[in-house]
Amino acid sequence: MGSSIQLVFGAVPCHYTTAKSYFTRSSSYFSVKNYVKGKWDKDILCEQLKGPVDFQGCLRVQGRGAISRLYSVGKPNRRLETLSCKCQRTESVSQAIVEVGSGKSVNGMSEPSSLQSLEGPKLLNNEKTVISSDDEIAAASEMSDTLQGFGINSIEDEAWNLLRASIVYYCGNPIGTIAANDPSAANILNYDQIFIRDFIPSGMAFLLKGEYDIVRNFILHTLQLQSWEKTMDCHSPGQGLMPASFKVRTVPLDGDDSATEDVLDPDFGEAAIGRVAPVDSGLWWIILLRAYGKFSGDLSVQERVDVQTGIKMILKLCLADGFDMFPTLLVTDGSCMIDRRMGIHGHPLEIQALFYSALLCAREMLVPEEASADLIRALNNRLVALSFHIREYYWIDMRKLNEIYRYTTEEYSYDAVNKFNIYPDQIPPWLVEWMPTTGGYFIGNLQPAHMDFRFFSLGNLWSIISSLATTDQSHAILDLIEAKWEDIVANMPLKICYPALEGEEWQIITGYDPKNTPWSYHNAGAWPTLLWQLTVACIKMNRPEIAENAIKVAERRIARDKWPEYYDTKGARFIGKQARLFQTWSIAGYLVAKLLISNPKAAKKLINVEDSELVNALSYALSANPKKRPRRKLKQSYII
Q1: Which residue among 36, 181, 205, 207 is least packed, with the fewest CB closer than 10 Å?
Q2: Residue 53's pLDDT is what?
Q3: In sequence order, which ranges of 414-541 are alpha helices (DSSP H)?
């Protein structure tokens, strides 16, 4: 290997290899353009290194052939005050030039070997991707061949390099991964941001690999974002709401246009398409926090006062009293992974499964104290009620389907069988033929006079992982997946839901959404990221062969297809018509699945196990036969 020059852009190292070796994508505009047929444009490189040798602060590429200083002094901008970058000083440019594999550090960061990873892009504030030219797109298309030329022959090796290429740095430290690193995308929208839900599989992959710092940084920085003031059209949501995503931006310092600083800019839904509320963000954050403690053994993070406060704020927001009579969370459409109009408003299963899991995780992590007694009591009561409600009313199999088929409607009594006044004619014709004789699942949604009979993969899988489903129900869900393999897995795991909304139903429910056409995107598209949830669920139920078969299906084409976001058509034969390539959570989902299959014991750190008190409470509730509830003793009212 030849020598390498490493420059520090905002405390993030970018590597330039002078010999004929594989380049790494960096945050600069010239990282790929200057590498043509194995040679660097020496004139440009020398031009970029011109200037005095006593640069101080963090060097940042402002444009082609220009390096400016980045100071971390002065007053930060507006609301970005508490999260501005406080980078360390580099005394001279010679400190930023090191040899590959020397192990020297720049600003406290060890310089990795040239093939250890692809350094993540430092995303700048010009709202453009750092990869845009035709040469760069062609280079990305040849990535697989290049990796194989350096002995990186397995899909897993390629995935790890791509995952590390997606890392975003803040103040010199890894803070998360961008949603997608697609060089062919003409419009990046918000795919260059760090999404909380999208980072979960990335975080799990790093935890399984023993790389804990990035997860710790992500947890603590997103916690700081939680307390920010959030306003849309003069309205502020409740405290405790976590952002859907955030971005590392470079902004000029107040009073000094020649210097810049890094800040975190969150989106709580006020800039999102459709202005959807990120209900699931706080739930995923609690789940990841518990996983970090389980894998790293570092319980000091969850015991911090600010972290304990953050957990309580999320719980208070979720457990707040409202008009609803049900223990399930009432949310708007598009409030979870399905973040567009798809008819899931109300009490979608995915939110309920994550809610239940987050409650269990929070109860495990909360420090016992007198001030939290009421909160913990409300949490325990909600766990029992939520578990009973989902198991009793969301579950459907052939027996339950036949029971609904024979329902009597318009029952007014405390002991009604058809509590939600479901009309038998709601049973869709496809379900009568599709339901296997063995197996079952939780329906997608339940409201008065409405049952959404679609099968939603994430909600059902997380019901297994969180023990929201009983042991028998968990096995039945996996039985259904096996029985309906061609519908749910087909040519690429895993359908986000089944079946698709079509015809007039699609027109009415989605509002003619051109992205959610039948068998595409959220409308029954296939999402490779769901592979890791399937693997955890299968390992928990001691049926890993189901996940192994799904992984084999994915490996046939996912790397060749450049790691798409999702797949289209009923059999998942086409790459999604608007799918981003090099989608980070597709990459991370595959890696987590592979790591868990090779080390099944690690899955125990991701699952929730019911404790004896909850089991006893549920047993009592079931034995009380809620279908025949005694009349309440009426109280006499008084006028004062």
Answers
A1: 36
A2: 34
A3: 429-434, 457-465, 471-483, 485-488, 503-510, 531-540
Number of compact structural domains in the chain: 1
Residue 119 in any domain: the answer is: no
In which element (H, E) is residue 363 found? Answer: helix 349-365
Q: In terms of DSSP H, where are the helices of 153-278?
A: 155-165, 196-208, 213-226
Residue 409 belongs to domain spanning: 168-610
83-102 burial, b at 16+ Cβ within 10 Å, e below that, comes to bbbebeebeebebbbbebee
Give the Cα separation of 301 and 216 in Å (integer). 8
Burial of residue 1, with CB atoms counted within 10 A of its CB: 0-12 exposed, 13-18 middle, 19 or more buried:
middle
Nearest to 565 by CA among 546, 548, 534, 590: 590
Give the C-alpha separation, 612 to 593, whole Å.
30
566 domain residue, yes or no: yes
Closest CA to 395 of 476, 304, 479: 476
Partnered with residue 526 across adjacent β-strands are 495, 567
Low pLDDT (below 50) residues in the chain: 1-82, 86-134, 136-141, 144, 147-148, 151-152
Q: Which residue has the tokens 């839900």?
A: 197
* The pLDDT of residue 143: 54
Burial class (CB in 10 A: 0-12, 13-18, 19+), 571: middle
User: Which residues share a beta bridge with 455?
Assistant: 443, 498
Which residues are 260's β-sheet partners? Answer: 252
CB 375 within 8 A of CB 548: no
Which two structure tokens, joined as six digits, stand for 430? 């496809």
**pLDDT score of 527:** 98
What predicted TM-score, i.e. pTM, was given to this entire model? Answer: 0.77
Cβ atoms of 528 and 558 within 8 Å: the answer is yes
Q: Tell me, what DSSP letter sits at residue 272?
A: S
Amino acid at 397: D
Residue 73's pLDDT is: 33
pLDDT number for residue 324: 84
pLDDT computed for residue 24 by the predictor? 37
- Say if CB 90 and CB 56 are below 8 A apart: yes
Q: List helix spans (H) across 16-126.
A: 42-48
User: Residue 7: its pLDDT value, please?
Assistant: 35
Q: What is the CATH number of the domain that holds 299?
A: 1.50.10.10
Beta strands in 93-223 (DSSP E): 105-106, 109-110, 167-170, 173-177, 194-195
DSSP 3-state of 52: coil
Distance CA 27, CA 328 (A): 44
CB of 568 closer than 8 Å to CB of 630: no
Q: Residue 93 domain-assigned?
A: no
pLDDT value, residue 321? 86
Residue whose C-alpha is closest to residue 16's, from 129, 122, 97: 97
Does residue 349 belong to any structural domain of this protein? yes
Pairing between β-strand 12-17 and β-strand 567-568 as defined by DSSP bridges: unpaired
